[in-house]
Amino acid sequence: MQDSHGLWALCFALGSGCFLTVFSRRLHLPTIVLLLLGGFTLGPMGIGVIDPETLGEFLPIIVSLAVGLILFEGALTLDLKEFKQTSTVIKRLLTVGVLITWLGSAFTAYLVFETTPSFALLMGSLIIVTGPTVILPLLRRIRVQQNLARILHWEGVLIDTIGVFIAILCFEWVVEGGGSVALPNFIIRIISGIIIGVIGGFIIYWMMRKDWVPNNIVNAFALASAVLIFGATELIKPEAGLLSVTIAGLIVGIKKPRQLREIKAFKAEIVDLLIGMLFILLVARLEIEQFITFFEMGGGWVLFSVILLIRPISVVVSAWGTSLNFKEKAFLSWVAPRGVVAASMASLFAISLSSQETPAGDPALLESFVYSIISATVLIQGLSAGIFANFLGLQRPAPNDWIIIGAHHFGRELARKLLREDEQNVILLDTNTRNIALAQREGIPAIHHDGMEAEELYENEQALCGAGYVLALTDNVELNQILMQRWAEELDSEKVFGWIPINNSKQEHQLKGQSVFGDLSRPSVIGSELLQRESSFETVIWEEGKSLASGDWHPLFIRRGKSFKAIPRDSSLKDMVKPLDEVICLRRYEGFLMRAMHRGDILEVDCESTQSLYEQLAEIEMEHVPSILEEQVVNELNEQSRLFPAHLGHGIAIAHVYCQNLDHRICFVAHLKNGLLTRGLEDAIDLVFFIISPKGDSDGHLATLAEIAKNCRSPLVREQIKNAKSVDDIIIAISV
Q1: Contact assessment for residue 453 and residue 261, using Cβ atoms and an 8 Å cutoff
Q2: Are 381 and 237 part of one and the same domain?
Q3: Residues in Cβ contact with 373 at an 8 Å cutoff, skipping those fewer than 6 apart
Q4: Domain range for residue 502?
Q5: Are 109 and 362 in contact (CB under 8 A)?
Q6: Can you give the CATH number for the domain in which 409 is found?
Q7: Which one of 559, 589, 619 terminates a domain?
Q8: For residue range 212-239, what is the model confidence (pLDDT) as tens digits?
């Protein structure tokens, strides 16, 4: 019966922790706030549906393993290259700042609670860590200036391991009663953790680099490897597994196997589950009476000292002689919320102390101290950090900039149209060095980077700190869909857009983000039209009752004040636009046939059959696109003529194909010397328009066909085209 109660407690803690995490993010609250309330409510002090005591001796095992996996995930995100280039403030916070926090908190606890010096040092060591699980969501929510965000981020990520091992050393000292035992045990933990962590990390990387691990189980492999490394180290020395998994994760993160992004995403989800479960289980163990006793003993003075004295002293000393101003120091002094690692270690030590016949300290006091610090810093600092940053003028404005993935000519021209000094910034991303160089030469912000690495770019690229919208604008529809999915994980889906053609087979509900520009040809074709002045960007100031001018107009964006809004494919312009809005459109001019003829020629063809005609037309196309196969062109012409007969009558026909490696349309006019009789036609065909269009340029292609049909309805124009001796003669005929 006890086992079933323990299973119920574990399952309910996991499920409720996940639900509370979802609700907190939906409500834009610090996750720990709801988890703390949930733990008290669901535990024995509340409605009693979760009793961690039913887990017995398995509780510390579960807590220890969960903390190890959290540290492994945190180490995967570290970038030592950036850390080496980081500020002096961070390095001091991790050294001098740690000592000030540890010794200052310990001294305060010693004075207020009149405990032993060793136990006071243990209490102080547990609140060294600020914790990335609290800091990173907080930074994303309040959007503080980039230099401050980087300081808090690195402090939170790196201080976990430092704080854990100082706490373990202090715990050894307290339990064993002195340094003669504690120090050797600490050294054993360090050595075993480093050796096994290094070996395990390199084995994980090597197996992934050699593709020994199938892609569909790479996440499971990484998780199992971390658990195995943790367990192997724990067999040598308890609590050494925390160091080994941290080092293993650090090595894998530094070596960057190609599967790293998927592993990090999977681990982040697992960590969210573990944090929710841990807080529910650990907080459910606590009793209100122990907190009442804590404050009766002077706990309020301890909180005051830790938050308003020790942290500011740590920041001031760490920032001495640096470029940080008073406001920046004040903000760093205020923000230092503690998280799940501090809570987990405090509960682990409290459980171990409670199992001793003569505890070396008060387990209830230890937990009350740490959880009071966590609650106060999360509730007070976490909820007020945004207000404080705004008061000091340190918040960045709401992310309003655009990232365009694709620095081709269309992307550059669109960025130039959207750019507006001091209002709207647009950053181009591309792996094409030439396109990036052209953009930078034209004064457009551009970064040579793979847009697929959304997480790394969004978190670490300072130039993207104001980015709030992304537009995937490559020629590859499938790539755009993947890019939208990647960026939707960093931004809200409604802020991610991509060029997806209307006739794309993928259903709209399967997309992450919103499809735009669906009625346009592929971006490289639009870029070619812009270069050749077949298209241009136009801005229309909207008025009540207004509509776009007649012609081929494509509304792309609406500018309202200092912000842009892309127009989704299925949205009605009239429903979105308001008076005085600026509607940015792409205008595609008429005259598609004329421009295609400028690149073409007049041919004299002698053929006896449709097949012979198609073979000669294929040879013509091969002259302009050498990489194409004649047989492929002939097959396409046969298929096209079978599905869409293009006989206009009066001896005129149209043959037309798409070509993958072409950036502009070409039109040839072929005079058939002896005419060509085909089944079902009374008149022999004596003139053929042969159109070759870029793959994806369906709009321009169909517009060219329509212009041919329109012009050939006139007997006079037909006669002039048939008698034409040069391209100029045809252009004169169709331009009248």
Answers
A1: yes
A2: yes
A3: 127, 303, 306, 338, 342
A4: 401-589
A5: no
A6: 3.40.50.720
A7: 589
A8: 888 788 888 888 998 999 888 888 877 6
